[in-house]
Write a structure and sequence with these properties.
CATH class of the largest domain: Alpha Beta
CATH superfamily of the largest domain: Ribosomal protein L9, C-terminal domain
Shape: elongated
Largest sheet: 4 strands, mixed
Number of helices: 3
Structural class: alpha+beta
Strand content: 25-35%
Number of domains: 2
Distance between the termini: 69 Å
Strand order of the largest sheet: 4-9-8-6
CATH architecture of the largest domain: Roll
Helix content: 25-40%
Radius of gyration: 24 Å
Length: 146
């Protein structure tokens, strides 16, 4: 029995895969649990259209990330913070703080996409990496001033 998987099934395949299974397993488990649907011409065409749309969406997201990387890469941002003697901060600069600085400058980037190499606990200039896409990232310069 040939079926199209609607969800990932351990040991069988991933969603939208065409699999050949025993009739009993297909009818009694996969179809009843709505983990698969029958392999008809219209269902195969639907899967092909969904895959094409997903590839196009992924391509557009990658292009948008590359464009944003070219704008954002190498930019310098300034963050003002209170500090004590010798330029030591009372706390540390976090990814949330950097996300707020970027938002003030017109870049809406989630804090989970910001990577800091070590803690920022003093004034100075630091390099921060921003992940825009699994394949695209860029570095910005963050100047911490009192």
């Amino acid at each position: 029995m040939k079926l199209i998987l609607l969800a990932d099934v351990k040991g069988l395949g991933k969603a939208n895969d065409l699999v050949d299974v025993n009739d009993g397993y297909g009818r009694n488990y996969l179809l009843k649990q709505k983990l698969a649907k029958e392999s008809t011409a219209s269902n195969l065409n639907d899967v092909k259209l969904k895959m094409g749309a997903a590839e196009e969406r992924a391509r557009r997201e990658l292009e948008a990330a590359k464009e944003l990387s070219s704008k954002l890469g190498g930019s310098k941002f300034t963050y003002q913070v209170k500090c004590g003697e010798g330029g030591k901060l009372y706390g540390a600069v976090t990814t949330m703080d950097i996300a707020q600085v970027l938002k003030q400058n017109g870049y809406d980037i989630p804090k989970k996409n910001i990577v800091i190499d070590g803690a920022i606990k003093s004034v100075g200039t630091f390099s921060v990496r921003i992940k825009l896409h699994p394949e695209v990232s860029c570095k910005i310069s963050l100047e911490v001033v009192s």
